[in-house]
Amino acid sequence: MWDESELVTKLTETFMHLSQRLSGFLSEGQSKVMSARLFDQLQKLLEDSYLLEHFNDIKEKLSSLLETSDNSSVANQVSDLSQRLVNIFEESQRSVSPPLFDLQTRFFTTIEEFQKQLDVMVKYDWDFDHYLEEDIPAVMDYIRSQSKPKDDKLFAIGHSMGGILLYGMLSKYGYEGRDPRLAAVVTLASSLDYTTSKSTLKMLLPLANPAQVLNVPVVPLGAMLSAAYPFTSSPPYVLSWLNNLISAEDMMDPELLKKLVLNNFCTISAKLLLQLTTTLREGGLRDRSGTFFYKEHLPKITTPVLAFAGDHDLICPPEAVYETVKFIPENMVTYKVVGQPGGPHYAHYDLVGGRLAVEEIYPRIIEFLSCND
């Protein structure tokens, strides 16, 4: 026999998660999609049962409740419908129909898998603007509280998306007429607009488009790269070209490169990925509303910027870096491409982890920051 109270509780909590929009994390469209998926899965479990008609009646009522904005007023109704749904499954359990023999196990599995989907959607529900508006200010406030700078200003160094965030911050603050309280900024391999270059970031588009169409919350980039690593570093080296995206030949210690690939990349919020793909469209990166173009407000920057580009960077080529820095006032920016025609060359991560970075990159950063201290 089933533990009815446990099942009622599980159902009620699941449907109330939907009706409450997961405390505001889920958009209306997401909650509709997620509830539709759950209903479809449950309906398949009963498609050969004479109880399907009763389930459809309850599904319609639950769907209606999920449209209600006053969630507190529908709690009792959700609980009641959950109990009625339990009754349907209990009645089906007494059926001798072979397809329903293991209905209990499949039903619990369906509910648990659905709950995991909701948890993942909540956990990874952020975009670029969340980083910019919440995380960066929190980090800077903490550093100020610990270092207590006399002029209340900090130095900031950002690589790749870290630099994009710094550009975004300077742009936003310049537009709003606010002081970013940064004495100087260094960016490495960063740009707000990749349209004028042959950036391999365009490879992300095949990941972003399905994520948008299917309304999935995450893109497991870290797992994908970890799975691909053996094919980049072992015979027959079918994916060895991926290494060039990270480091130029002989520029990074092999063990460091391995650790970087296996540990540095992680699961990405689909919302973050979708917003970053605007860097590949005309006008460059924009905010989540799609109306604020960060590049347009770079001329308002009053903070000195040192921008590095790697000569063999396939992810953020020098052309992409220049497409951003050319909008910054000339007296506020220093643009530097590192790497020599005959070598050594710098790929995307060589600017921070290459064997020559300590000799060629770091001293220039220190000198620049010292001059603006």
Secondary structure: elements and pairs:
Elements: H1 4-19, H2 21-24, H3 28-45, H4 52-65, H5 75-93, H6 103-123, H7 128-147, E1 154-159, H8 161-176, E2 182-188, H9 205-214, E3 218-219, H10 221-233, H11 243-246, H12 254-263, E4 268-269, H13 270-276, E5 305-310, H14 318-325, E6 333-338, H15 350-353, H16 357-360, H17 362-371
Parallel strand pairs: 1-2, 2-5, 5-6
Antiparallel strand pairs: 3-4
Helix pairs in contact: 1-5, 1-6, 3-4, 3-6, 4-5, 7-8, 9-13, 10-12
What would you note in describing this structure?
There is one protein chain. Helix 3 (28-45) packs antiparallel against helix 6 (103-123). Helices cover 53% and strands 8% of the residues. Strand 5, helix 14 (318-325) and strand 6 form a beta-alpha-beta unit. It is globular, with a radius of gyration of 26 Å. The protein has helices at 4-19, 21-24, 28-45, 52-65, 75-93, 103-123, 128-147, 161-176, 205-214, 221-233, 243-246, 254-263, 270-276, 318-325, 350-353, 357-360, 362-371; strands at residues 154-159, 182-188, 218-219, 268-269, 305-310, 333-338. Mean pLDDT is 75; it is low at 18-28, 69-74, 95-101 and 235-239. It starts with a helix and ends with a helix. The chain has a 4-stranded parallel β-sheet, with helices on both faces. Strands 3-4 form a two-stranded antiparallel sheet. It folds into 2 domains: 4-121; 128-371, 3-Layer(aba) Sandwich (Rossmann fold), CATH 3.40.50.1820. With 373 residues, the protein is an alpha/beta fold. InterPro entries: AB_hydrolase_1, AB_hydrolase_fold, UCP031088_abhydr. Residues 130-348 form the AB hydrolase-1 domain. This is AB hydrolase-1 domain-containing protein. Keywords: Lipid degradation, Lipid metabolism. It comes from Chenopodium quinoa.
